[in-house]
């Protein structure tokens, strides 16, 4: 049997998965989050998946809510899909909706479940210094990424990857793996997750991007990698907020937050253990500039101390 599919997704991350599904299967319905105001002009803008569905002429729904939404349940039931696929859709699916397709919902989750359940598995895997992650295809249940595992595949994390590069790699892996899962639909054996091994990846907040200079240098760099897409890396100097870019490990020891030197390649700053090199700095309301250019103009030299921030 070649299943007919309803696809639930919203951001650009989900586009390769949508393209792979529609290449191999008939997509009966695309479901995305509602249009939202974007930019200074607050122009109402559809999420990337909704925009792509419109381009392709695919049936599209953007319900404001899912719980107790009988009209949308009927839309899903009436579209004729045998199974639904979710990829970064961004809303919790109620039990009543999960029961509508004959084969339920399959979710593409970008971690090796039960590790990193939640909204930001890619980011937290990097922040926590993982060297391997992967993609899980799971049967969705009413919990938060708690359903049984159908397929799972590892992905090594390259040392220089930030959340941007890792997202790209995992999006491609998820696209390939969901096609395999749908092709084998009905033959896959669900494996319950080990609840005792579960870890969580909550949605990021702005403070997750604040530099903890008392952390080891490796942890500072890993946090920078994890928050590269949003909220990005922020430090404070004399109360002023600065966006830092291009963080990498450097040689040196000193008091946490102390500038050890200004080099052509960047500003070297001591951490709790070791040091990092910052290659670019963006003061508030200004453009990013090379750290070596910013430092002398800002009066920053060896001995300058960044503000301490701790959660």
Task: Give a summary of the structure in a few sentences.
Belongs to the Fmt family. This is Methionyl-tRNA formyltransferase. The protein is an alpha+beta fold.
Question: How would you explain this protein's 3D organization?
Answer:
There is one protein chain. The model has no long low-confidence stretch (mean pLDDT 96). The chain has two domains: 4-197, Rossmann fold (3-Layer(aba) Sandwich), CATH 3.40.50.170; 206-297, Methionyl-tRNA Fmet Formyltransferase, Chain A, domain 2. The protein has eight helices and 17 strands. It has helices spanning 15-24, 48-56, 70-78, 95-98, 121-127, 163-183, 217-226, 291-297, and strands at 4-9, 26-31, 36-38, 43-45, 60-61, 83-87, 105-109, 132-139, 149-156, 233-237, 240-245, 248-250, 259-263, 266-270, 275-278, 280-283, 289-290. The protein is 25% helix and 26% strand. It is α+β, with helices and mostly antiparallel strands and 311 residues long.
Features:
311 residues, alpha+beta, Rossmann fold, 2 domains, four-stranded antiparallel beta sheet, 25% helix
Largest sheet: 7 strands, mixed
Annotated CATH homologous superfamily of the largest domain:
Formyl transferase, N-terminal domain
CATH architecture term of the largest domain:
3-Layer(aba) Sandwich
Strand content: 25-35%
Which residues sit in consecutive blocks of at least 5 with pLDDT less than 50? none
CATH topology name of the largest domain, in short, is Rossmann fold
Strand order of the largest sheet: 5-2-1-6-7-8-9
Q: Overall pLDDT, averaged?
A: 96
Shape: elongated
């Amino acid at each position: 049997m070649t299943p007919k599919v309803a696809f639930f997704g919203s951001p650009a991350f989900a586009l390769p998965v949508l393209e792979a599904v529609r290449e191999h299967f008939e997509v009966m319905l695309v479901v995305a989050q509602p249009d939202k105001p974007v930019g200074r002009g607050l122009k109402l803008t559809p999420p990337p998946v909704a925009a792509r569905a419109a381009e392709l002429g695919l049936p599209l729904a953007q319900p404001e809510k899912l719980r107790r939404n009988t009209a949308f349940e009927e839309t899903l039931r009436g579209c004729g899909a045998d199974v639904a696929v979710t990829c970064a859709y961004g809303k919790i699916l109620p039990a009543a909706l999960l029961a509508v397709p004959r084969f339920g919902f399959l979710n593409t989750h970008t971690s090796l479940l039960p590790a990193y359940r939640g909204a930001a598995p890619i980011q937290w895997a990097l922040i926590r210094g993982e060297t391997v992650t992967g993609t899980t295809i799971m049967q969705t249940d009413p919990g938060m990424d708690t359903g049984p595992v159908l397929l799972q595949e590892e992905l090594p994390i390259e040392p220089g990857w930030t959340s941007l590069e890792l997202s790209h790699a995992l999006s491609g892996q998820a696209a390939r793996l969901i096609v395999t899962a749908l092709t084998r639909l009905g033959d896959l054996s669900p494996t319950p997750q080990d609840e005792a091994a579960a870890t969580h990846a909550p949605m990021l907040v702005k403070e997750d991007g604040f530099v903890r200079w008392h952390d080891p240098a490796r942890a500072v760099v890993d946090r920078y990698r994890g928050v590269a897409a949003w909220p990005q890396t922020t430090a404070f100097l004399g109360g002023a907020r600065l966006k830092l870019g291009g963080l990498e490990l450097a040689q040196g020891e000193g008091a946490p937050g102390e500038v050890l030197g200004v080099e052509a390649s960047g500003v070297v700053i001591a951490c709790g253990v070791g040091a990092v090199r910052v290659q670019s700095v963006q003061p508030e309301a200004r453009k990013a500039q090379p750290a070596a250019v910013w430092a002398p103009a800002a009066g920053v030299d060896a001995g300058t101390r960044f503000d301490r921030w701790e959660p």
